[in-house]
Design goal:
about 80 residues; about 0% strand; globular; hydrolase
Length: about 80
């Protein structure tokens, strides 16, 4: 799957939503492929969630300061609540 490039607008407030939209088809295809292989929907959902969390943690750890790490993790927890 080819992921569309982000738009070159100055408005960064919707970049997260735009990124979600750009990744959605591939994400759904990956989940469907896993279920066709025999994994149930709950297992797939938990695995994909854990992988997303690991990506956030790795990104936070590479951010540098303890404050950056805390902010990244807090944002992840806030978004997970929605």
């Amino acid at each position: 799957m080819r992921v569309p490039l982000p738009k070159k607008s100055g408005d960064h407030s919707n970049r997260t939503h735009a990124c979600e939209a750009a990744l959605k088809a591939g994400f759904e295809a990956l989940a469907e492929e896993a279920m066709e292989a025999g994994w149930d929907r709950y297992e797939v959902a938990l695995a994909l969630s854990k992988l997303g969390e690991q990506l956030v943690e790795a990104t936070a750890e590479n951010a540098g300061s303890a404050a950056d790490i805390a902010i990244a993790k807090a944002l992840f927890e806030i978004k997970r609540g929605f």
